[in-house]
Amino acid sequence: MKRAFIAIIFISLLAFIYAERMVISIPFTTMESLQEYIADGHDIASVKPHERIYLVVNEQQRLEFVTKYQDVHIQFTEADMRANLLPTCERIVGYRSNAQINETMFHYQSLYPQFVKVFELGPSQGKLYFDAGNNNYANFNHTIYGVKMSNNVSVLQDKPNYYFYGNLHAREPITAEMCLEIMINLLQTYNPNDANHPLNASQIWIVPNINPDGRRIVFTQTDVWHRKTIFDNNGNGQLDLGPSGNSPDGIDGNRNFSYR
């Protein structure tokens, strides 16, 4: 009985070790090799052409890559990611929550009403389900907001238009911060006499948080690797996640974009 108990603990420990994910980098060899990783279903976090490929893997997969390449680096682990998360308030240290992203847009609209106008773009997928009476999505009752920026924001001007959006992939929270910093920088550097300043020369559209549902999944540590929306693919009326970013539910936000 004692040996059986020890064996169960050992097997459970192995399962935990092999289930935890991490980001590793391996050498970029050829485009053909990269295409093979994509075809094999590997979760590719990033690529530096002709330098490194960054992959989300578990420990077993990491060991398999170690047998193929000498130069395999662990960039960060799931434990590293979780150490930065504050699940009780849905925040990462130094990053805005979903609510704070929206508050920031409305705050700058109040400071610069001539240059900034906030638009309610529509409900998130979770809000659509919740508004239809499905309480399984009560925690995903999000509205998506964006801002238009120009030197006369109330008028639709015949100028070049630029579009910035963030958090398309749920596990990329820095992109929302980048969008907000672009907004703030444009306002703080504005010069009405500079014809080349973007607010004078163009219209700019910024949507910092295009995927608030997925972002919440990451920030609450429900699945720190989640990258998709929460579309109910299997139609069972509830959110199904796992394993580690490859959940049954959800659509990868950059699929099927039309040209331009």
SSE order and pairing:
Elements: H1 2-19, E1 21-27, H2 31-39, E2 43-48, E3 52-58, H3 59-68, E4 73-77, H4 78-83, E5 85-86, E6 91-92, H5 98-111, E7 116-123, H6 125-131, E8 143-149, E9 161-165, H7 174-188, H8 198-201, E10 203-207, H9 212-219
Parallel strand pairs: 9-10
Antiparallel strand pairs: 1-3, 1-4, 2-3, 5-6, 7-8, 8-10
Helix pairs in contact: 5-7
Task: Give a quick summary of the entry.
This protein is an alpha+beta fold. The chain is 35% helix and 21% strand.
Key phrases:
Alpha-Beta Plaits; 21% strand; 260 residues; single chain; alpha+beta; Aminopeptidase
Notes on the protein architecture:
This protein is an alpha+beta fold. The protein has two domains: 19-83, Alpha-Beta Plaits (2-Layer Sandwich); 95-219, Aminopeptidase. The chain has helices at residues 2-19, 31-39, 59-68, 78-83, 98-111, 125-131, 174-188, 198-201, 212-219, and strands at 21-27, 43-48, 52-58, 73-77, 85-86, 91-92, 116-123, 143-149, 161-165, 203-207. The chain has a four-stranded antiparallel beta sheet. A hairpin with a 3-residue loop joins strand 2 and strand 3 (52-58). Helix 5 (98-111) runs parallel beside helix 7 (174-188). Residues 4-18 have low confidence and may be disordered.
